Amino acid sequence: MPDQEESVASSQSTSYAKFLPELSSLTKPFWEYCEKHELRMQYCAKCSQWIWYPKAWCPSCGDRKSIEWRKLSGVGTIYSFTIIRQVIDNSPAFQADIPFIIGLIELEEGPRIYSNVTGTPIDSVSIGDRVMVYFDDVTQEISLPKFRKY
What we know:
It is a single chain. By secondary structure, the protein is an alpha+beta fold. It has one domain. The chain is 15% helix and 35% strand. It contains three helices and eight strands.
């Protein structure tokens, strides 16, 4: 299995065959920060709540003017996960990765985010494992946040 640097470099040199996120006015800042290898989420300064996924208003207090993009540590724990053993429509782009892990990561700051958990054998992943974000530069414009145990 190639190390992380090799897999990131190889994904840049070839066209990316998997689905890419659709950028909107709400999600564009998130992806721009990911491109800089920064994990940021919206935060409501009025009620002190993290907001994930990006929204035009705070779902806790309804405020639209106090939302800012705050940097997160990228450190968290696996809150839950599933092992993907079959891909819908048998997409050839994902077939090569089977089996793979999708985890619900609870970040140290509190919010949770779904992402791939990579770089470790499937049978060694457990709820409660400590993980850290890294960014897979899949195109020149898109860097996907993924997590690995540390």
